[in-house]
Amino acid sequence: MATGRPHRPTTRGRGIPEATVARLPLYLRALTALSERSVPTVSSEELATAAGVNSAKLRKDFSYLGSYGTRGVGYDVEYLVYQISRELGLTQDWPVVIVGIGNLGAALANYGGFASRGFRVAALIDADAAMAGRPVAGIAVQHIDELESIIADNGVSIGVIATPAGAAQQVCERLVAAGVTSILNFAPTVLSVPDGVDVRKVDLSIELQILAFHEQRKAGEAAAGPDITDMVTPVVPPVAATRRRADDVPARPAVDGAVPHGVGDAGSGPDGSDGGRSAAMPA
Amino acid sequence: MATGRPHRPTTRGRGIPEATVARLPLYLRALTALSERSVPTVSSEELATAAGVNSAKLRKDFSYLGSYGTRGVGYDVEYLVYQISRELGLTQDWPVVIVGIGNLGAALANYGGFASRGFRVAALIDADAAMAGRPVAGIAVQHIDELESIIADNGVSIGVIATPAGAAQQVCERLVAAGVTSILNFAPTVLSVPDGVDVRKVDLSIELQILAFHEQRKAGEAAAGPDITDMVTPVVPPVAATRRRADDVPARPAVDGAVPHGVGDAGSGPDGSDGGRSAAMPA
DNA sequence: GCATGTGAAACCATTCACAGCG
DNA sequence: CGCTGTGAATGGTTTCACATGC
């Protein structure tokens, strides 16, 4: 159980679908922008466009919160802002600690959207004694020895981990032991936590890899595809590759004698022609 | 899961499910760790644990790639690393540009996992002329005027946006016009892009809000016994939680005469009796 | 014998399409 | 009449459980 789990087996029916919860902040942001421009009401269509979803989905999402719209008119912006804020728990503010004040931690501490929407940076914590006392984003960094007392004194229940991967699990354990029950993890590691603790993960490298997958697919289709009508750019000049270690050779099946029958099997170097994306049901 | 769209309606069936693609990087990381410890094979059970998923899911995921395991034995680590890398398109390297070298952009540029897994920072770009020439993570920042030629000269197809929200859409358009077809967006905005361009979004503030939702739910459950459905809780003046503007009052339905009937309607502040932790707020 | 690979079942999410109401 | 709210249809994902084959 890693990333944002269903957090709980289904504590008795009730409740907003996880996918909907994940979109509420999006709606809230769009609504806040409208509110700032003093727009009084919006239709599901307009709001959906602003939030980047389709209107049916938005209406379905809102239907889980209650009937907050007016038929034939739309939604009252201010009222909806309040209802969503309340649903997300943003009418109270949440003290947050950031552990690991390197480049990333500092960036997070400086991030404005942080403080503005119900969250307050209660403390910045780092293991490097040399950092202690140094102000980052106007807050003095504290040494990790203080972690437990900081959590307790401030009633912190949300922690952000921005440490190197190697330190993440240990920091996580200390946070949890001290009372934190929600963790936002920026370290590229799978954290293991006890039940009842939520972990969400933000991983740059994973996001890039997902993009690379689609990117490759586009290139492959463009090159060998009768499908996909027109592509924006013809083909990306496949720059030479530079694999990071010495394992540039495909690597053989191994085991014993028979070779596992891959689908679009190896042989194609960095890319060769490869053709389609391979993948296809096995025989 | 970020905003990564379905990239395409279903370009004709075939292909690996999106949910599976999103997990491949996770498996790859776990496998790489095993590889470094020279572990020759793993079972689906072991690998699943290391990646933080369950084994049935992992096997199903791998089944979309082909039959790369050996019954009764498990998977050959090296071979699987190669197959997944190839599937993700990591056997070639991808030049990436980062636009917006503020705190976050600098953190991204310094992020090690970046370069190590098939990605290469081809350029750092910023709109501030004063930044031009300044080295960040060993690379000289270039002015945004050079954006188009940098993209073209380096065959960049992946761009990372780390600018303030206000600049994001414009930067996005320039990137796309110059040939970028995959974008990783860190700015808190919904980007609109033409078909064929993939956007993935990483949004700190959204992640925190999702955590806050669950956090609130935990507190609510702990405090309000059996069921939260009781509408109109008597007490509780909603804590004056330092809302950022003057709109601290709930905001009324509005429209005309009738009040919309919410579900677990307002009135319930942070939670009342609280029970759980919950920060001593500054009044 | 044991772990993979996979149909089938269960589950969740999205989309459709329209009834219902201001 | 227009737009919300929602049952029903569709599509995708996860889980189960076991046949398959090393």
Q: Whole-number radius of gyration of chain A? A: 24 Å
CATH architecture level-2 label of the domain at 94-202 in chain A: 3-Layer(aba) Sandwich
The named CATH superfamily of the domain at 94-202 in chain A: NAD(P)-binding Rossmann-like Domain
SS strand fraction of chain A: 5-15%
Cross-sheet strand order for the largest sheet of chain A: 6-7-5-4-8-9-10
Oligomer: homodimer
* Elements of chain A, N to C (H/E): HEHHEEHEHHEEEHEHEEH
Low-confidence stretches of chain A: 1-13, 225-252, 254-283
Name the shape of chain A in a single word. globular
Major beta sheet of chain A, specifics? Answer: 7 strands, mixed
Function (chains A, B): Modulates transcription in response to changes in cellular NADH/NAD(+) redox state.
Subunit structure (chains A, B): Homodimer.
Biased composition (Low complexity) (chains A, B): 251-263
GO cellular component, one term (chains A, B): cytoplasm
How is the secondary structure organized here?
The structure is a homodimer of 283-residue chains.
Chain A lengths: L17 H19 L4 E2 L1 H8 L3 H11 L3 E2 L3 E3 H12 L5 E6 L3 H8 L1 H5 L2 E8 L8 E2 L2 E5 L3 H8 L3 E4 L3 H14 L3 E4 L12 E4 L2 H21 L59
Parallel strand pairs in A: 4-5, 4-8, 5-7, 8-9, 9-10
Antiparallel strand pairs in A: 1-3, 2-3, 6-7
Chain A binds a DNA duplex (22 and 22 nucleotides) through helix 1, helix 3 and strand 2.
